[in-house]
Write a structure and sequence with these properties.
By secondary structure, the chain is α+β, with helices and mostly antiparallel strands. Strand 3 and strand 4 form a beta hairpin. Helix content is about 30%, strand content about 25%. The protein is elongated, with a radius of gyration of 15 Å. It has a 5-stranded mixed β-sheet, covered by helices on one side. The chain is built from 3 helices and 5 strands, in the order H-E-E-H-E-E-H-E. It binds zinc ion. The site of zinc ion has 6 residues, from loops.
Amino acid sequence: MSEICSTCGLPKELCVCGEIAKESQRITVRIESRKFGKKYTIIEGIDTKDIDIRDVMKKLKNKFACGGTSKEGKIELQGDHKPRVKEFLVQIGFAAETIDVK
Ligand SMILES: [Zn+2]
C-alpha cells in the first residue's frame, strides 16, 4: 500500500500538491549586511505548511557550499548569492514569477 496524500487523495507518487505549492509561494530574496561586513542572503515567504523548508535549505547549502539556517519560513545563507539564488529555486521547482529579488 502506498501512502495517500491527505490533500488530493492520490497516492503520494502521483500527488503534485507539493509542486503546486511551490508555484503559489510569494518568495523574497534580499541581502542583509551584518557586523564585520558579513553578508547574508535572506529568502523569505516560504510557506512551511506546504514546503519542506529544511530540504530547500539543504539543497541551497549544497549548491552554494555555504552555511545557513532556517526558521519560520525564512532561510539565511552566509554570503551574497543573490545573482544565482533565483535561478536555482526555479531549478528545484519554484515558479520564477513568485520570486522577487530585491
Ligand atoms: Zn496531493
